[in-house]
């Protein structure tokens, strides 16, 4: 016999309130992720700037004055702490701000940054005869390769306190301390220690 009782109402699950509550949580989650990535980016950039300013910096070789050790376009890493906290030794390859006299004694264009090899230390007496360099009356012992001819003679130079006498390894084509004098320590940016480009010449200097 047919059931004449009225149909019972069917309950419908109302999910609208749950959806509305989930959306704010998703927004907060996305906002939090964005803030976290932003903080990471800021920290990474800050660390990179600190490292570049105080520890290590990359430079590109602009001229052929250091051939055969460094060629035009080579990329090197320069240790800044080695100058700030350590010592500068004879034979070190250093990067420094160009001396003011270079603007009138070197062929243009004059790069703002020079890279040369330290030959004379504070207090040294530097002279040359032919292709031979004398430091304090003794022949300079070179463990690095250079090109010939030597170019202009050094003459007789007494290196002042806190100054350094620089030469390029490509002696005949280098505008260096023979032309514009010695370099104050305060102008030295750092020591070149690693060639990172080209890949087939990667190695310590």
Q: What does this molecule look like?
A:
By secondary structure, the protein is an alpha+beta fold. It folds into two domains: 35 residues; 148 residues, Ribbon (Umud Fragment, subunit A), CATH 2.10.109. Helices cover 25% and strands 27% of the residues. The radius of gyration is 32 Å and the shape is elongated.
Write the layout of secondary structure elements.
Layout lengths: L15 H39 L1 E5 L14 E5 L1 H4 L8 E5 L4 H4 L7 E8 L4 E5 L2 E4 L2 E2 L16 E3 L4 E5 L9 H4 L2 E2 L3 E10 L5 E2 L1
Antiparallel strand pairs: 1-2, 2-11, 3-4, 3-11, 4-9, 5-6, 5-8, 6-7, 9-10, 11-12
Please summarize what this structure is.
With 205 residues, this protein is an alpha+beta fold. It contains four helices and twelve strands, in the order H-E-E-H-E-H-E-E-E-E-E-E-H-E-E-E.
Overall CATH architecture of the largest domain: Ribbon
What do we call the CATH homologous superfamily of the largest domain? Umud Fragment, subunit A
Q: Assign the CATH topology of the largest domain.
A: Umud Fragment, subunit A
CATH class of the largest domain: Mainly Beta
What is the number of domains?
Answer: 2
Q: Radius of gyration over alpha carbons?
A: 32 Å
Quick one: overall form?
elongated
Strand content: 25-35%
Order of helices and strands: HEEHEHEEEEEEHEEE
Distance between the termini: 104 Å
Count the beta strands: 12
Largest sheet, if any?
8 strands, antiparallel
Counting helices, strands and paired strands, the structural category is: alpha+beta
Residues in helices, as a percent range: 10-25%
Q: Low-confidence stretches at least 5 residues in length (pLDDT < 50)?
A: none
Specify the number of helices.
4
**What is the averaged pLDDT score?**
87
């Amino acid at each position: 016999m047919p059931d004449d009782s009225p149909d019972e109402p069917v309950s419908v699950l109302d999910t609208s309130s749950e959806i509305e509550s989930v959306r704010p949580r998703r927004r907060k989650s996305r906002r939090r992720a964005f803030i976290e990535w932003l903080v990471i980016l800021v920290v990474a950039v800050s660390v990179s700037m600190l490292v570049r300013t105080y520890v290590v910096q990359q430079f590109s070789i602009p001229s052929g004055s250091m051939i055969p050790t460094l060629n035009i376009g080579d990329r090197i890493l320069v240790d800044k702490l080695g100058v700030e906290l350590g010592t500068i030794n004879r034979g070190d390859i250093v990067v420094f701000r160009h001396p003011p006299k270079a603007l009138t004694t070197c062929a243009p264009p004059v790069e703002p940054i020079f890279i040369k090899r330290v030959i004379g230390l504070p207090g040294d007496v530097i002279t040359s005869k032919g292709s031979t360099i004398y430091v304090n009356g003794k022949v300079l012992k070179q463990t690095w390769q250079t090109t010939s001819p030597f170019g202009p003679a050094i003459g007789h130079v007494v290196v002042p306190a806190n100054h350094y006498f620089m030469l390029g390894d490509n002696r005949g084509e280098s505008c260096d301390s023979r032309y514009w004098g010695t370099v104050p320590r305060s102008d030295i940016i750092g020591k070149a220690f690693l060639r990172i480009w080209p890949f087939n010449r990667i190695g310590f200097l």
